[in-house]
Design goal:
Blueprint (H helix, E strand, L loop, with lengths): L11 H11 L6 H13 L6 H17 L7 H13 L1 H14 L5 H13 L3 H13 L7 H9 L6 H14 L7 H13 L6
GO biological process, one term: interstrand cross-link repair
Protein name: FANCE protein
GO cellular component, one term: Fanconi anaemia nuclear complex
Length: about 200
Amino acid sequence: PPELHVLNNCSPGQLEGLCSFLQLSTCPEHLLGRFCSWLLALTPDLSYTSAAILAEQLFLGRVLSLTQPPSRHLMAALASFCSKYPQPFCRVVVAAVLREPGEGAEQTKLVCELVEECLEPDCVRLVLSQVLEVPLSEKLLPVVQAVLGRQEGLPPELFDLLVLTLCRQAPTFATSLNYAKLVTAVLTMYQSQVS
């Protein structure tokens, strides 16, 4: 709709106010997908800041409050938004999930699914760098496993940081099967780089 062009002309504060006025954070999930398809068609593309605000308004609350697998409507909307604005999405939503303490099983599964199926290689590397910025936990091990499962080459500095983190954290995960699987995957995939 032509009215959506207003999104390109809003300041960040105005955009937050507009999202609040339209109650985007609580709009029904079946309408979320339609809204995201409109965003994809918008020209020119949204600025990074605008996309980050929309990622926060549209998805952050929904993702952090998941207690069961996301609906197909929510997954479709997430995949749609990530296809065009993956960096702001990762910096806002994925970063918040990674920092969230506790189990967060559904959130972790969602991030793994996005890594495996939706995100481009540069964003997969961004997710890994975000994981390595926070203390490694049992909750985050499947995310690292999903990143390795993409079999994308890692830049040397990111790979070194991953190996260093795994070495430092070894005592913490002495009885963790997920940690053992992760170390095995690293040794298998990067055997020429691990001394």
